[in-house]
Amino acid sequence: MKTAMYILIMAVVTYLIRALPFTLCRNKVKSPFLQYFFAYIPYAVLAAMTLPHMLFEGKNPLCAAFALVAAILLALCKRSLITVASGACVAAFVAGLFL
């Protein structure tokens, strides 16, 4: 019962965090700075969630380093997010075959 209550509370909190910006900010953001800032939030969150796990939780940190370099190079070449993630996975796999 206690676990169900925790899940319910977290569901409500998560819903409020996602719903409040839509209800409070009905107009489009006109500030170029804020548009630029909001455009990079998904990439920053993805990096913050995956980078520590990728570098410190794997079996071989050298494979993770190869994946990180591949991801950075693909990102610098202006590839899509799915291409960068897939390229990093392939680089880690190939590095794992040889190391």
Structure description:
The chain is 82% helix and 0% strand. It is an all-alpha fold. It folds into two domains: 1-31; 40-99. The chain contains five helices and no strands. The termini are far apart.
Helix segment tally = 5
Question: Got a strand count?
Answer: 0
- Describe the oligomeric state of these chains in a short phrase: single chain
Number of domains: 2
Helix content: over 70%
- N-to-C terminal Cα separation, in Å? 48 Å
Summarize the structure.
The chain is mainly alpha-helical and 99 residues long. The chain is built from five helices and no strands. Helix 3 runs antiparallel to helix 4 and helix 4 (61-76) packs antiparallel against helix 5 (81-98).
Characteristics:
single chain; 99 residues; mainly alpha; 2 domains; 5 helices; 0% strand
Topology (elements, then pairings):
Blueprint: H1 2-24, H2 32-39, H3 41-56, H4 61-76, H5 81-98
Helix pairs in contact: 3-4, 4-5
